[in-house]
Design a protein that fits this description.
- The protein is an alpha/beta fold.
- It has two domains: 140 residues, HUPs (Rossmann fold, 3-Layer(aba) Sandwich), CATH 3.40.50.620; 118 residues, HUPs (Rossmann fold), CATH 3.40.50.
- Helix content is 44%, strand content 22%.
- The chain is built from ten helices and ten strands.
- It has a ten-stranded mixed beta sheet with strand order 3-2-1-4-5-10-9-6-7-8, sandwiched between helices.
- Helix 5 links the parallel strand 4 and strand 5.
- Helix 4 runs parallel beside helix 5 and helix 6 packs across helix 7.
- The radius of gyration is 19 Å and the shape is elongated.
- The protein starts with 5 loop residues before the first strand and ends with a strand.
- About 3% of the residues have low confidence.
Length: 280
């Protein structure tokens, strides 16, 4: 476990960001973390929660009050269960840029963000802020869908294309899984079934095992003729996975799954939390 583990949770007071805060708090308890609840002042967001203050005269005062209420609730509920502390911070400016800058300033170990998910009546998918954070941050990031409430994750699905960094990243996944006694499926996904994939899968499995040291791990080879992201979504459903995890180091693999039109591809996974490991 990293010393002085820090979790950063951006909040805009939407339901999905409050879900993210719940996840951040529960995970923070396990890591004995310092949780920072972070808000970037934004007039458009403010008018959604305070429509009578059209000019935003009381925005800072209102936001401070709301953040302190959230802080008090987290301190009351999570500090007795292991959370080290919960603090609030306010910034102003472009939301994504300020969040990225602040995450580096505080050396956050994990960002936990919410997403509204797919709107059936509009072309807005996943929320541009969340997708931009996933692509631009150099920090591990966990994305929580709007209608997903915290529960103990019984199974984590780690999608891999077999890179050296997997050996370190999987240790993060194991550490997380131990907190909740979660099962882990390490899934190699391929666009076609080939003998070479089976041989690679066998060799990489043997290489990864010494780095795992956890009994509740399954090594799975899956091939999908169609879109890999759709295939993973299907696997998540069939395997009853509670969280999807992947490493972003291997760009061509990550691009196939998410980066090419990320917001649309991510709509496949908006029923499950999605953890992208950025650093090892």
């Amino acid at each position: 476990m990293a010393a002085n583990f820090t979790i950063l949770c951006p909040i805009d007071f939407s339901n999905c960001s409050l879900n993210a805060l719940e996840y951040a708090s529960k995970i923070g308890e396990k890591y004995q973390a310092r949780l920072i609840v972070f808000h970037v002042l934004n007039k458009q967001d403010y008018q959604k929660i305070a429509p009578l203050d059209l000019e935003g005269h009381f925005q800072l005062e209102f936001v401070n009050q709301k953040l302190k209420q959230l802080q008090e609730a987290v301190l009351r509920e999570s500090v007795p269960n292991g959370l080290e502390d919960c603090v609030i911070e306010i910034s102003e400016g472009p939301i994504v840029q300020r969040t990225l800058e602040f995450s580096q300033k505080v050396n956050a170990n994990l960002l936990v963000v919410g997403t509204e998910g797919m709107n059936d009546f509009k072309e807005q998918v996943f929320g541009s802020r969340s997708s931009k954070l996933v692509m631009q941050t150099d920090r591990d990031i966990l994305v929580i869908p709007r209608k997903v409430y915290f529960k103990r994750p019984r199974k984590l699905v780690y999608a891999t294309d077999y890179v050296e960094e997997d050996k370190v990243a999987i240790q993060k996944v194991v550490e997380f899984a131990r907190f909740f006694d979660s099962e882990i499926d390490i899934v190699h996904v391929s666009s076609r079934s080939r003998v070479i994939d089976k041989a690679l899968h066998k060799n990489m499995t043997e290489e990864i095992k010494p780095f795992v040291n956890y009994e509740l791990v399954n090594y799975v080879l899956k091939s999908f003729r169609d879109d890999l992201a759709l295939g993973l979504e299907n696997y998540l459903q069939l395997a009853k996975g509670d969280m999807l995890v992947t490493l972003s180091k291997k760009k061509d693999f990550f691009d196939q799954l998410f980066a090419k039109n990320l917001s649309r591809k991510m709509s496949y996974f908006l029923t499950k939390p999605f953890w992208v490991i950025k650093s090892s």
